Amino acid sequence: MAPPNLYRVIDKSSRARYIPGKGIYAEDTDTIVDFQKTHKRSTLYWRLRDHLDWASDKASPFISTYSSLFVAEREARRRVRAGKEDVRIYKIDTGKCGRFKGTVYRNVQPLAERMGLWIEDEAYNNSKYEWIFYRHIPARAVVELRGWRHE
What are the residue boundaries of the DUF7587 domain, all occurrences included (predicted)? Predict the structure, then answer.
């Protein structure tokens, strides 16, 4: 069961983009994955593996979010300290996502573990709070925006 709210951290260099009135889009909106096929030859396996690899330069069909505002704020602070520009946190109301209309999202850690994918040590703690959306987060679900500055 998804939490009532998820949080997306974005900065000027983020690959997933917010488009006003449309929502948040993954960089790759063309790849088709089947969440029922989790074997090592599946497109889901390879695309999720690439998504979890911070060094990968492949466009991802997934958009990372966090179920914890605390974790999202910590990530926003990390980005600000790293010199990232235009750091923002979007609040997403999962009740407005309309799963019946094609919005798909999953908790990363159990999905990766079920598929036998390794999550890097430095990302493992955050991964229990990470949820990925497939391709798109509808605008109606993006209910709040908060800018973030160096404190």
Answer: 2-144
Q: Which has more confidence, 148 or 84? A: 84
pLDDT at 29: 94
Residue with more model confidence, 24 or 101: 24
Token digits of residue 141:
């679900």
What is the CATH architecture assignment of 5-147? Alpha-Beta Complex (3.90)
Contacts of 12 (CB under 8 A, 6+ apart): 84, 85, 86
Distances in Å between the Cα of 121 and the Cα atoms of 85, 104, 112, 127, 136 are 26, 26, 14, 10, 28
How many other C-beta atoms are found inside a 10 Å radius of the C-beta of residue 72?
A: 24
Is residue 100 scored above 60 in pLDDT? no
Q: What is the pLDDT of residues 107-146, one digit of tens each?
A: 999 999 888 888 877 666 778 899 999 999 999 999 988 8
73 touches 126 (CB < 8 A) = no
Evaluate whether 114 touches 40 at the Cβ level (below 8 Å). no
Full 3-state SS string of 80-127: HHCCCCCCEEEEEEHHHCCHHHCCCEEEHHHHHHHHCCCCCHHHHHHH
